[in-house]
Amino acid sequence: MENHIKGIHHITAMAADAKQNNAFFTQMLGLRRVKKTVNFDSPDVYHLYYGDEHGTPGSVMTYFPFGHMPRGTRGVGEVGITEFAVPTGSLGYWQDRLASNGVAGLREDSVLGEPRLAFDGPDGDSFAMVESDPEGRTPWTGNGIVDEVGILGFHGARFRLREANAAGELLAFMGYEKVATEGAVTRYRIEGGNAARTIDLEELPQASASRQGAGSVHHIAFAVEDRAAQTEVRKSLLDTGYQVTPVIDRDYFWAIYFRAPGGVLFEIATNEPGFDQDEDTAHLGEALKLPERYRPFRGEIEAHLPELA
Ligand code: ZN
């Protein structure tokens, strides 16, 4: 695959309540909402993007808030933990902030020598903050969150799988190297891309299958620089026997999708053109942006979407 994969691009999950989701990611975690648009296949549902100032690939958590969606059930065959990178020494701040605001699931531990704080999202989503070197990344600040503690982007993600070898082989094919093992967790890392370079595979042979719902990750997207690289990656995957979708225009990136061994849905997304292609960086995420085909129906669409704040 010629080193085309550049780490995580974004992670997309599902939520129940849009307003609650927006408040949690912007006010509690202090991320910037970098895009307010709709699900391109279902324009009565928002697609909300949260990240750093620019929505830099490797920092972008996105949500489909489906309204009264039942919660998902954690299990194998999914991204089990979405992991944010935070500056070294900041976990005490986050423990206090999240605890005093009633965030559930708080637990401090360490994986492969890295201190981390696990916590739950509003729909029981599984998250962790991992102390990490900033590597030039700058957090979005505000809502009481300063540079020294702000979320830098993703550290990585942990997949939960009944059997991890086949997914590990796919990661290796994508350019990841197996770097460490601790208990049931095998760590993979990719060099030469962004700082969201870690994927941990947790093998749980006896666990039951996950069931998708609110709080579940829908898919994980890996970054490629541009459409040319994406074309080459798509061809390599097809040649290896993966069933890959055609290239889909998502306005802010181009996307292809395929199912990884073990059940996780993978996307390969381009770093181009980015979130500033239809609004100024200073005002990212403020106005409702619609893909061209829905623009004639803006009034109707807006009437059906809930207020976010
Ligand atoms: Zn995606």
Rounded to the nearest angstrom, the distance between the terminal CA atoms is: 44 Å
The tally of helices reads: 5
Q: What CATH architecture label applies?
A: Roll
Helix content: 10-25%
CATH superfamily: 2,3-Dihydroxybiphenyl 1,2-Dioxygenase, domain 1
Would you tell me the structural class of the helices and strands?
alpha+beta
* Share of residues in strands: 35-45%
What count of domains describes the coordinates?
1
Descriptive overview:
The structure is a single chain. The protein is α+β, with helices and mostly antiparallel strands. The chain has a single domain (8-304), classed as 2,3-Dihydroxybiphenyl 1,2-Dioxygenase, domain 1, CATH 3.10.180. The protein is 17% helix and 37% strand. The chain has an 8-stranded mixed sheet with strand order 2-3-4-1-13-16-15-14. The protein has an 8-stranded mixed sheet with strand order 6-7-8-5-9-12-11-10, with helices on one face. Strand 15 and strand 16 form a beta hairpin. Bound molecules: zinc ion. Zinc ion binds at residues 10, 12, 219, 221, 255, 267. Residues 10, 12, 219, 221, 255, 267 line the site of zinc ion.
